[in-house]
Amino acid sequence: MKEWDCMLPFRFIHAADLHLDTPFSGMSGVPEQLRQYLQGSTFAALGGLVDLAISEEVDFIVISGDVYDASESSLRAQLRLREAWERLGQHGIPVYVIHGNHDPLNSRRLRLAHPPHVTIFGAKVESINATRRSDGETVAVVSGISYPSAAVMENTSLQFRRDLASKLYHIGLLHANVDGQEGHDAYSPCSLRDLQNTGYDYWALGHIHKRQVLSQSPWIIYPGNIQGRSLKETGPKGCYVVDVGENGEANPIFHELDHVRWSEIEISIERLLTEEDWKEAVEEQIEELRENSVGRLQVVRITFTGRGPLHSLLQSGRESGELLQELRRRENVRLQGSENGVGSLGSIVWLAGVKVATGMDIDTSTLLQEDSFLGELFRLSARAEGDIELLDSIVESALAPLMDNSTLRGLLKEEGANSNTKLELLRRAQELASSLLVEVDSRGGMGQ
Amino acid sequence: MRLEKLQVSGFGHLHGVDVELQGPVTVLYGPNEAGKSTLLGFVRAILFGIPSRASGHLRYEPTQGSIHGGMLTIEGEDGALWSIERYAGHADGRALSGTRGDRLRITKSDLDGRLQELTQQEMQRELLGGMSKEMFKQLFAVSLSELQEVSALQSEEMSRFLFHAGIGGGAAVLRGEKKLAQEMDKLYKPRGRNQEMAQMLQSLDRLRQETDAAKALLPRYNEVLVELEEVEAKRAKCTLERTLSLHEANKLEKAAEIRTEWFKREALLTELGALPLHRGFPEQGLIRWETLQGEKERLLLEIQETNRRCDVLHSEMASLILNQDILDHSGELNMLAGLMPGYESRMKQIAELESEALTLRGQLAQCLRSIDPVWRVEDLHNFAGTVSERENVRRYISRFAEYDKVMERLHTERFKQEREITALKSAYTSAVSRMEESKLNGLHQFDVLIPQDRAEIRSLWSETKLELDRWREISMSKLLDSRATAAEALTQDRMRSLYYRLLGGGAVLTVILPAGLWMTTGELWIAAIGGGFMILFDLFLWLGFKSGRTKGKNSLRRAGHTGNVSPVEARLSTLLSKLIRHPLTAAGKDMSSVSSIDPEDWELEERQLRQLMEGWYLWDQRHEVLEAEVLNCRSRATAAIDELQNLERELSRREAAFDDLVQEWESWLSERKLPRDLSPEAALEVFRLTEQGGELLSRIEGLSYKISGMQKENEDFKERCRSLRETPEGAARTSVISQLQKMLLELEAQLEIKSRRDILAIQLPPLEEERDRLEDRLDRVLTLEHNLLTEAHAEEGEDYLRRGVIAARRETLEKEVRQCDLVMFGGLDDERKQQLELLLHNHTGEELSRQVKEARETAEETERNWQNLQEQRGRLLQEQDSLEARCKQEDLSQRFAENKAALSESIDNYAVMAVCNELISRVRRIYEEERQPEVLRMASGYFAEMTGGVYRRIVLKMGTQELMAEHREHGAIESTYLSRGSAEQLYLAMRLALSEAVSGHAKLPILLDDLFVNFDASRMGGAISVLKEVSNRHQIIMMTCHKHVVDEIMAKIPGSQIVQL
Questions:
Q1: How confident is the model over B96-106, as a mean pLDDT?
Q2: Banded model confidence at residue B597, pLDDT cuts 50, 70, 90
Q3: Number of helices (H) and strands (E), helices first, in chain B?
Q4: Interchain contact, B912 vs A429, CB within 8 Å
Q5: Which residues span the membrane (chain B) (predicted)?
Q6: A40/A99 same-domain check
Q7: CA separation for the pair B474, B484 (Å, rounded)
Q8: Which listed residue, of A9, B289, B866, B1049, carries a Cα 20 to 30 Å from B47's Cα?
Q9: Virtual CA dihedral for B688, B693, B699, B700, nearest 10 degrees?
Q10: Mind listing the pLDDT tens digit for each residue in A366-415?
């Protein structure tokens, strides 16, 4: 349908959601050195991106929004970004950037004008001819649109339209939530079909932090962010190096850029009988992670699941807290070691936290039938699970004291007040109650 | 059950009081101290035992010290009549605990009239339905004090009536809740400040503030950037202004500064204008003029000098005169003077050479004489002493020598051969004689043997041996020792004689050989070695001889047996007969006799035979050797004789050849006129002498040739001398040299004069030339002078000089003006120069200085401004740097995030606990409200009735077991917060409800001791109407001291019995 015989091969990098200098969330008790490392990791990833661009000799870079968090208002992010631009400029690598919901055009920015090789797209779709560095031949049309303000609810993809006369490779830069993916704000909502209809060859998307290839013809790709910063962003992070051949076929290859890798592991307590078993299981998991490390610092959260005799022990939180402290202490020793040149940061597995989602070793179905206080409680929570209003009223009245404080209120809101988190809360509360009541039961012998 | 009758024997202050109780409700009405409460105590005591002394007043000790106790008459549920009689034991006051010390009689007479005595326990079980004393006291016999004892309701015993079976006492729930509350409180309390979360919040707020401050970095940075831009713009403008004002000020200052100079220049310009204007006075005209004049003077003087010198030279040259004739021959004279020494030396040489020639001729004559007296010089010339001749002579010499050598060799050979022949002949004869001797010896020794032929003997013997072996196999035979010994001794003797001979020979050799060797070689050591060897040989022989003797001794025995097998023997005997001539006769000498039947003889014979044959074999071998030796000697002798004859022939041939050679030599000598007897060696000597002679001859010839050459040269020289000047007086031969010398002297004098004249001639032309040159230069100077005059437009020298002075003055002035210009406007462009001149023209001194001041001030002002801006810019740049540095260090956002995370974690924990707490409280509410126990419901009913509906119901809070009254309007109120009356009503309602629940089948009577004192009228009415309802099931006995109570009861319960105490 298209004539590709006049295509010139070229190579570019597609990255998005750099979120420079945004802090790592969901971690506490971080020692100084680690904090510094974490803080530098987004910049390190950016540095890696620049290095990659230089070493791969790409013809240009496209960045699909959220380069930094305007809310963080980090001068450092801006200055470092500038340094990165300059380095790319020294190597003559052009950069095409759009702004996303986190760094909209109306946000605070460094007042300095961008260097000429950095192209920032405006609030309307613009198209620019990109050239090949080797001979200055025009090889592609890069189109993009930036967010004028933080919330864009309009389907901006409709503004993109391929110039049918042009036989050049068309690359669209868009910061959008395609097909309304959950867990992300539905900014610039559009559908896959919308994108496919534009006639563009490559859609360089941003906004969703999880890497995904939505379509191969045309290519519609979320490269994900370049550095995971919370437990929601686990696994390798990086960018795509895209080779476009003479036949116009693109070959995107993922390159890891992250310096800190997040992961979450689950440990079931079902088969664990003693505290020692449990500690061993945890240490085993950590060592396994360490062995499989790929030279990156790893941040990990352990979730204990399953029903078992250790539930009550864990439920009190003291033992897991102690274990957490101990494991962190060990990693800290390693950290010191790596600072002194012994070992590397890559061997560190930092425990961000421990989540206890275990259950009492009891049969809930019989409990639900039982004419007892706990039975009644389980029946109540079962009712609440099905009845959102009841659930809301329970959670609301429970958390009412917290609502007095504006900060806490804000945090609670951030945590997300959706039914899932509430349900989760309810279930955990139910498990807590069962451990509390049964514990007393087994001690006092006052049950039925 | 109902109480029928109380008969108090003695209880407190009551004595012999009988109270009959009728109907469901009885009111005991009486004033204070009437004994109402005592009666209550009495009922308790009779039913459950009189309290011990420890109980104090409750024991109700009789005041008069009479009998302590009484009797109760009770009608049971089943209609049986019970009488319980109880008295405190031991009135003497001995303390007895419990009821054991009481005197107790319990009788039950049922409807059928059966009387039965029962124990306390049986009574309690049957009559009271197992009611305990405590419960009875709390629920059935209630006084005001007991009513207010809330704890009674919390006793374990009662709780099971109060609460729902499913939750026990609710203590677990309570504990759980308490624990949760503790944990939650640790984490968070609204408005608390020390809880974990509160502290986290505080630090978070602090961090937030700091973070906000950090967030201000970016806007501040932007501001700095804006400010920087502004400042930069201002600074650019200011810089421009600054340069302008500085320029202006400088200009004015300059003007003020150069004012004096300017005036000076003006003056100079005026003077310059006054000077007459002469055109084109030559540059440096005056100096040049003076130089020319000086030059002119000098040249004139020099010309005169030169002329004088020329004249002097001319006169000198004229005074010198030359002799041209001598000078013409000067070349030839010089040559002859050069040849003169050669002439003289040749004269000397000629004399020397002539004497030498004389000597050589003498030597030559001597040489000829030594060859041969007849030889002359011609012979010498004729003798060809060529190399081939010499070779011939040498060949003759060698041939003679060769002949001598061959002859000598042949003679020695012949001599040797002759000696050898004689030796061989003697050896042959001795060998023949040895062989003959051996042959004779053999024949003599072995004459026993028949065959003469040796081969035959051998074959026969080998056959015989075969047979002998065979024979020995069959039979054992013996040989006779003695025979054998004899035979052996014989051989031994021979051996010994041989050795003796050898030893003797050896000894002789031992002596002779070394001596011989010494003599032949002349070397003592070889002789010694030879002697040594011989001695060793002798020694060996001697040892051999000795061992031979011992061996001989050892082998002196032999034994043999002859077999007796006849066929073999027969064969043997035939063979032997063939071999040996006379066996029996021979036995005496060589062999033992052989008898065919005696094996021993056979043996002996065989041995002898063998010995004989061995001896024969030995001899045979030796004989063969001797034969061969004879043959050998003979052949060698004949060969030697042949060779001798050959030698003789060779000798005669050689002698004939030698005679020819002598002839040849003699003819050769005569050919060369030499004496015939000359040997070839002497001939060689002649060759040497002729050579010598030849050499001498040639030298003589060379000398005479040389002498003649020299004489000729001398003649030539003389001739030339003579031809030079044919002087008449120079006839004498000696004068040739002296004349020549005189002429040479003359020539020398002439040459000197000539050279002097030449020098003068050379000096003259340069002088003349110099004179011409000077004249030319003078012309040139005059021309230049004229030129100067024309150029200066001057008529003559003086006019020229005047003009020159004026021109110099003008030049000075102009120079000064230029200097002024330079001082004033040095380095300035035309524009500024004009500006300055304009200024100086237009303004006075004061005006100028004023303007300078003003301009200076403006300049300073702008300078200050500029400095300010510069500083501002510096500050901003510094701030920019510091902002960049700060932002690179801060880690607030991360710390904020961490604190937030920690807080979120806590919130999460708290939330779980809070939700858990909420769940528990909700479930508890369900329990408290919806699943209320029967007792509470009933009590609620009573309570509502008592309060006329003000309180709707009673709620029991789980865990705390605290009673709460739910007010119609104000909701639940804890009992402790209720008014005294309401609380009492609440407790009463509870007790009534509980007594209902507890009673079961035994409906116990309820005794209420003046409980309505705190009730208002309506509440009391309500209470009474409740009691009325209760009285349907229980007997009710009320004590009161209030008339209105009695009245009220009477009104509400018409059938009630009033007992006045």
A1: 64
A2: very low
A3: 30, 16
A4: yes
A5: 498-518, 524-545
A6: yes
A7: 23
A8: B1049
A9: 170
A10: 778 777 778 888 888 888 888 888 888 888 888 888 888 888 888 887 77
* A323 has pLDDT over 80: yes
**Residue after which a domain boundary falls, among A256, A287, A302:** A256
Q: Which residues of A touch B922 (CB under 8 A)?
A: 380, 394
- Tell whether A2 is covered by a domain: no
Q: Which of B441, B559, B431 is nearest to B494 (CA)?
A: B441
* Percentage of chain A exceeding pLDDT 70: 95
Residue B562, pLDDT above cutoff 70: no
Residue of B896, B907, B920 lying closest to A412 (CB–CB) = B907
Region of residue A275 (phi > 0: left; psi between -120 and 50: alpha; otherwise: beta): alpha
Same domain membership, residue A159 and residue A234: yes
- The pLDDT of B621-637, averaged and rounded, is 85
pLDDT of residue B729: 47
Chain A residues whose beta carbon lies within 8 Å of the beta carbon of residue B168: 446-448
Does residue A1 form part of some domain? no
Domain boundary at A191, A223, A256, which? A256
Q: Is B193 on the interface with A (CB under 8 A)?
A: no
B898·A27 Cβ contact <8 A: yes
Do A302 and A178 reside in the same domain of the chain?
no
C-beta of residue A14 within 8 angstroms of C-beta of residue A217: no
Residue A99 has pLDDT above 90, yes or no: yes
For residue B762, CA distances in Å to B327, B757, B771 come to 21, 9, 16
Q: If contacts are CB pairs under 8 Å, which of residues 503-562 in chain B contact chain A?
A: none
Query: Are A216 and A152 in the same domain?
Result: yes
Tokens of B76: 């049971």
Tell me which chain A residue has its CA closest to the CA of residue B926: A376
Rounded Cα distance between B562 and B474, Å, is 9
Q: B719 or B633: whose pLDDT is higher?
A: B633
* B residues 904-963 lying closer than 8 A (beta carbon) to A: 904-905, 907-920, 922-924, 926-927
| Distance (Å, whole) CA B216 – CA A318 | 41
Question: Residue-wise over A148-179: b if at least 16 C-beta within 10 A, else e?
Answer: eebebeeebbeebebeeeeebbbbbbbbbbbe
Q: Are residues A132 and A251 both part of a single domain?
A: yes
- The whole-number pLDDT of residue B573 equals 74
Q: In a 3-state reduction of DSSP, which class is residue B66? A: coil
Taking contacts as CB-CB distances below 8 angstroms, the residues of chain A near B176 are: 433, 436-437, 439-440
Q: Is the pLDDT of residue A4 over 50?
A: no
Does A130 lie in the same domain as A226? yes
Within 10 angstroms of residue B377's Cβ, the number of other Cβ atoms is 12
Characterize the bridge pairing of strands B115-118 and B141-143: unpaired
Candidates B41, B88, B50; CA nearest to B68 is: B88
Interchain proximity A22–B893, CB inside 8 Å = yes
**Does A369 lie in the same domain as A305?**
no
CB contact under 8 A, A408 and B913: no
pTM above 0.90, yes or no: no
Q: Residue A342: what pLDDT?
A: 61
Lowest-confidence pick of A229-238, A322-331, B417-426, B673-682: B673-682
Enter the DSSP assignment of A360. -
Domain count, chain A: 3
**A253, A14 contact by CB (below 8 A):** no
Does A5 fall in a domain? Answer: no
Domain span at residue A149? 10-256
Instruction: Say yes or no for a CB contact (<8 Å) between B919 and A440.
Output: no
The pLDDT of residue B553 is above 80? no
Across the interface, whether the CB atoms of B919 and A79 are under 8 A apart is answered: no
Number of H helices, E strands in chain A: 11, 15
| pLDDT per residue as tens digits for the range B837-886 | 888 888 887 888 888 888 889 889 988 999 999 999 999 999 989 988 88
Structural domain contains residue A371: yes
